[in-house]
Amino acid sequence: MTASAKELAVVPGDVVLDQTVPARAPWSSVVKKGHVLTIVDLRGNQSVDTLVYHAHDTSVRYSAPVTIASQRQLFLTTGSVLRAEDASALMTIVADEVGNHDTIGGACSQESNTLRYGHHTKHQHACVENFLIEGAKWGLGKRDLVPNINFYMNVPVEEDGTLGIVDGLSAPGKRIALIAETDVLVLVSNCPQMNNPCNGFDPTPVRMIVTEPYSRSMRL
Predict the structure, then answer these.
(1) Cβ pair 155, 163 in contact under 8 A
(2) N or C: which end of the chain has fewer CB within 10 A?
(3) Do 177 and 8 meet the contact criterion of CB atoms below 8 Å apart?
């Protein structure tokens, strides 16, 4: 039996939204201030590429450099604050069952697939295309795309600065939860990549649950 949204939501509250994002598909929603977004890795080892914008002014958006500098840490986990270029807080991770999420691996595209894996992959749908398709619903275009977060993606950094994309640390049912510090637009590409281990070479669905906590001041 499939667990209910209330059972899966990390922060107890009233369920505002409960949607399953198919493998390789985009998703978006406005998450209101104080509401909590729980992302569930249903089958494990699935990368969830994510962008965050201020819902009422999309020029205010997630900044990887500012977020990394503010926390003095490349990777995201419980307590990490997703910050905009002006250092304002957009979302805070309040719970994390994996403990390591990527900020520097970027989003796959048809062009990068061709460069990395060969011309025969050019036709494959990719995260940049997902972001453009979904962002268009909110008036966003290519110039609005910035370096994204890759929830559940494992990108170790070697001593010489080399990046790797290796098997994920997640498992079926693992969750991460973020509270919105202001009204935010969350844009997701449920990564379609099949040419490296970020999705175990087999993209799978994820579940997005938004709850309104019973207590607005609740923090885990």
Answers:
(1) yes
(2) N
(3) no
